[in-house]
Amino acid sequence: MWEDSSYCWVVLCKNSWFHLRKQLFNHHRIPLGETDAVTPLPPLDGPFRVRCDECGKEYLYKPSDVRKYEQELPDPFAPHPLFRFGEERRRSRRSFKSVGLVVRAVAGETLLSQENASAISASDHGALIALSAEVQIGQTLYLKNPRNQIEVKGRVVRIEKRGKGLAHVGVEFSEPAPTDFWGDLRPQSNRKTTAERESANRSSTS
Fold first, then answer.
1. Contact at 8 Å (CB) between 59 and 30?
2. What is the DSSP string of 28-95?
């Protein structure tokens, strides 16, 4: 069973009077660009202008006004000039089939916790995992796929409490995971597997 989920960077339109007539309790979210569950906000040098896709008004926003939100992008959609990373920013398509992992939380040489967990969203550059252990933003985690014993290192970039002692934890990998890491469930990408790279290297040296 595949589950799909879309994330984007948004700001709230400051023309509250216009939008509250349509949605009494909700502010209008202006989509800026596509992202995923774990990618952090890209560097922004300072305030920037955004024109609302509904009311047409343009306002100045600070980088701290930008939020990540789970919603579908309109079709057609043109990203804001500062958020035109598209596939380059996402860098790999996400897989949404739950994958079992062994997750270790460490501090230096000290093992803080270890548990069997599930990755509910994944890419070559990060994963969103359901975790019961208490973790902190910036903490180092090691994720091992028990099916092939490949382990990757990452850091916590996002925590969402979900109740029943669980949290959805966004982990950004220190470097792109080997394509073999996700096995048959790996996200689609243009990178080659370890075996394919070794075969290519042998061919180039023969």
1. no
2. PEEEEEEE-SSPPPPP--S-EEEE-TTT--EEEE-GGG-EEEE-PPPSS----GGGTTHHHHH-SPPB
Q: Which residue bears the tokens 């382990």? A: 151
Coil/strand/helix, residue 194: helix
| Parallel/antiparallel/unpaired status of strands 48-51 and 150-163 | unpaired
Which element (helix H / strand E) includes 113? Answer: strand 110-123
Mind listing the pLDDT tens digit for each residue in 97-147? 568 899 999 888 889 999 999 888 788 888 889 999 999 999 999 999 998
Numbered ranges of CATH 2.40.10.220 in the chain: 99-188
d(CA 190, CA 117): 28
What is d(CA 160, CA 149) in angstroms, rounded to the nearest whole number? 28
Between the CA of residue 169 and those of 17, 54, 153, what are the distances in Å? Answer: 36, 33, 14
Domain 99-188 top-level CATH class: mainly beta
Task: Yes or no: say if 48 and 113 are a contact pair by the CB < 8 Å rule.
Answer: no
pTM for this one? 0.56
Residue 93: is its pLDDT beyond 50? Answer: no
Quick: pLDDT tens for 31-67: 998 887 777 787 888 999 999 988 999 999 999 999 9
Q: Helix, strand, or coil here: 190? A: coil
